[in-house]
Amino acid sequence: MFGMAGKNGSDALGLDISVLGATLLTSSTDPSPSPQSENGDRYLSGVEDTGALLQDDNDTGEIEGDDPTIIQSAETTGKKSTIPEASFNLINSIVGAGMIGIPFAFKEAGMIAGILLMIGMGILTDYSIRLLIRLGEVSGTTTYQALVYHYGGRSGYILLSFAQFMFPFFGMCAYSIIVGQMYPLVFTVLFGETALSDRHLVITLMSLFVMVPLAMKRDIAGLARWSLLAIFGIVFLAVVLIIGGTTVEQPVDRGPVPTVVEPNLVQAIGVMAFAYVCHHNVFLVYESLQDANEKRMAKATHASIGASCALMLVVGVVGYLPFGAATQANVLDNFPVDDKLITAGRLFFGMVVMLTYPIECFVAREVITECFFAGGLTLRSHILVTAGICICVLAIALLTNDLGLVFEINGLVCANILAYSLPGFLGAVAFRQAAWTDPERWKPTLLLLFGAAVFFIGTVMIFLEQVGDK
Questions:
Q1: Is the backbone peptide bond immediately before 258 cis, with ω within 30 degrees of 0?
Q2: Looking at the predicted structure, is the pLDDT value of residue 415 above 60?
Q3: Is 427 within 8 Å of 440 (Cβ atoms)?
């Protein structure tokens, strides 16, 4: 089966395990389009061949040697995936630690609205994935980067690079915050009240002695093998929530349950977008598919989005119902400190998060390398860039414990760009010659408008909420 580390993510390991982002390593290949497909000719008049991305003229874009940090494509390895295997790869790119915030999204949106939103976001994600594949076929491009440069030029490529850096960066912040929320409680159960009960000390120690040393590695191929752990972790989380939710004492501020709709519905979209995003791996999955075509990829996409949506609905409902309005961004924080099953869940899930952290760092570092280090990173620059990223992450994690805010910002901005706004823009540009009655024109336009509306309304509401809290 085609090997791939998975949000999420966005999203990376889902949280994006989802963002192993191997496409970043192949983005320097020549994006010049092959001859346009017969169906694409009528739409592409006036679209110029953009040539190589941001390379120097002498840069061939080839990757020399057998670099173990590079996930080989199916074209290189000769391995091809069946539709079920391709579906699994996409599921692996979606499910992850970001799903721990889905119950919080249901609280923000209201349970009924949250369920409808989760299904609706799944439909939009399914469409945007298929749109990217369609555009790749029309333009002859085989990576997200090349596709964006083909239709959006240098400005589009810079926007994509920004989103591809900030998405894993905020993911690392979220994971550090999760570690600081979970492990002090685990250590309190194991050793009683000690210095290890302080979140700041735990985040610092786990960062310096576990996450950062793993992030310093140039070869993360071994970590990619832990991708199955993310899916198992989410299933285990669902089981823990189902069992724990039936026995936990309901909080006094639970409020009426279920609710229909709540004021923070747009922010809930950000949390869901963070969980759903997997678009950085779409072209790798497509390339790995046996007898790849749009119809077969659509089957794999439908299956993976459907399964991921069902799993997120289960986690969302069983995590939200016991706590209602008191549901926290990390739903495990709602449970008692001394609950043995929940303690096991915290311990295991924290381990998943710490193994995901270096994969996210790898992607963020590769974006910086692609943009600023044409010759690649020397050992010294590798250490400095990695240290710089991790220090910034550590500072943010120590300054804030608001996991929900990190989820919302990352979803509304970065995941939104990667999964909705940018694919919608690319489709609107590619099919701009079509009649407005043609779905290939109005569907991408609506996707773009959705992404833009969510971004502007969501960021304004977050700003007002933060100002109001102060």
A1: yes
A2: yes
A3: yes
Taking the C-alpha atoms of residue 39 and residue 322, their distance in angstroms, rounded to an integer, is 52
Mean pLDDT of 114-124: 97
Is 269's pLDDT higher than 70?
yes
What is the spatial distance between Cα 5 and Cα 95, in angstroms, rounded to a whole number?
Answer: 11
Amino acid 67: pLDDT: 39
> Mean pLDDT for the chain?
83
The whole-model pTM stands at 0.81
Q: What angle is formed at CA 39 by the lines to CA 37 and CA 41, rounded to 5 degrees?
A: 70
Residue 184 and residue 198: Cα distance in Å, rounded? 6
* Collapsed DSSP state (helix, strand, coil) of residue 163: helix
Q: Please, is 286 exposed, middle or buried when counting C-beta atoms within 10 Å of its C-beta (0-12, 13-18, 19+)?
A: buried
Res. 62: pLDDT tops 80: no
Per-residue pLDDT reduced to its tens digit, 214-241: 999 887 666 656 666 767 777 888 888 8
Per-position b or e across 95-125, b if 16+ CB within 10 A of its CB: bbbbbbbbbbbbbbbbbebbbebbeebbebb
Token pair 């069946």 is found at 82
User: In this predicted structure, what is the pLDDT of residue 164?
Assistant: 93
The answer on pLDDT for 16 being more than 90 is no
Alpha helix (H) residue ranges in 277-419 = 282-288, 294-320, 340-372, 379-399, 403-409, 416
233 and 315 in contact (C-beta within 8 Å)? no
Whether the pLDDT of residue 451 is over 80: the answer is yes
Residue 289 has phi, psi (to 5 degrees) of -75, 135
Q: How far is CA 402 from CA 3, 195, 234, 370, in A?
A: 34, 22, 22, 31
Beta carbons of 106 and 312 less than 8 angstroms apart: no
Token code pair at residue 49: 């061949």
Q: Which residues pair with 65 in a beta bridge?
A: none
- Side-chain half-sphere CA neighbours of 221 within 13 A: 9
Phi/psi of residue 81, each to 5°?
A: -105, 145
Q: Which residue has the tokens 């909080």?
A: 251
Cα distances (angstroms) measured from residue 72 to each of 20, 136, 214: 12, 20, 21
Cβ burial, residue 10 (10 Å; 0-12/13-18/19+): buried
pLDDT for 226 equals 64
